Amino acid sequence: MRRSVLACLLLALLTPSESHSQEHGFELTCLVQGEPTDVINDNSINTPALAEYRNGKRTIVVNPQRTEGLPPVVQAFVVAHECAHLIQSPSLPAAFHERIDPERERTADKIGIRLLRDQLKISLAQAQTVAAAFRNTGGALPVYLPGPARENWILSCFKTQSMDCSKKNQSPQSR
Fold first, then answer.
1. In terms of pTM, does the model score above 0.70?
2. Distance CA 74, CA 158 (A)
3. CA–CA separation, 175 vs 128, rounded Å?
4. Cα separations (Å) of 6 from 18, 29, 119, 151, 158?
5. Where are the domains positioned within the chain?
6. 163, 156 in Cβ contact below 8 A?
């Protein structure tokens, strides 16, 4: 079984002028197939963040102008969600771009919230903040669940260990 994690310093990414400090944000550290992933800022992308292969390297691209008003835990989730896309397609750049698929987005939400839960030890209240950020989105693209359904999915995935995010096997942080 492959151990898949992604490396990025969210704090450095979102507030590059500030010194590294846990109190100013979250530090999400992971690797994908043992290799760090590049994280870059790009104000020209039309989304808060995206995952792609640039110059043959896994890259998360963040638009700070679109994420700056979000709570730090939601900013961390945005990056973790993109990490999840890279985890799902760790070695096939061509297949990676064929990801316009609702199930892949649901899986990215599941992996993303669990990265925050298991690695950063976020609380249920913080998970609720993340989930609530999507409450009124209405399914911006056809691949995303409509807002309330996505909110419930994210919370269910935080609260459980099960693959389908059902109520069985609740996580200790969810209680």
1. yes
2. 14
3. 13
4. 22, 6, 11, 24, 19
5. 10-174
6. no
